[in-house]
Every structure is written in structure tokens, then in C-alpha cells.
């Protein structure tokens, strides 16, 4: 169990570090400030709105991501 706890703590600290870097740059942590998500091509994806980031509603700003959280 010690190994699993160490891995979970590492993942948590890594995520918190990522969020703090994105906060400093005022970028959304989910899309890294692009406003859209990159998905591989898929023959079943037809919606034009599916690529917008749901975390920031496509703005790419940390403040929008923080308000919607």
C-alpha cells in the first residue's frame, strides 16, 4: 500500500504543479490555453462543437476555468 500511496501523492503533486503553472500564465489547465481539445480523427465525430474545451468554454483562460469548476 505504501507504493500506491506514493504514486497517488506524486500524481497529485504533479497535477497541482501543472495547475499553478497554468494559473501564472492565465491558461486553462485542460486545453493549455488553446480553447479547444485535440482529438485524433474519428469517423463518428460530426459535431462542430465537440472540439471546444468544456473546462473554459473555449476561451482558454484560467479565470473562466476556475469559475466553471
Q: Please tally the helical runs, counting DSSP H or I stretches of 4 or more residues.
A: 2
- Which whole number gives the mean pLDDT? 87
Shape category: flat
- Overall structural class, as computed from helix and strand content, comes to mainly alpha
Radius of gyration: 15 Å
SSE string: HH
Unreliable residue stretches: none
What proportion of the residues form beta strands (DSSP E)?
under 5%
Q: What characterizes the major β-sheet?
A: none
Protein name: DnaJ-class molecular chaperone
Organism: Rossellomorea pakistanensis
Write out key terms for the chains shown:
single chain; 69 residues; mainly alpha; 2 helices; 45% helix
Description:
With 69 residues, the chain is mostly helical. It has one domain. Helix content is 45%, strand content 0%. It is flat, with a radius of gyration of 15 Å. The model has no long low-confidence stretch (mean pLDDT 87).
Fold topology:
Elements: H1 2-25, H2 62-68
Write a concise synopsis of the structure shown.
This protein is an all-alpha fold and 69 residues long. Helix content is 45%, strand content 0%.
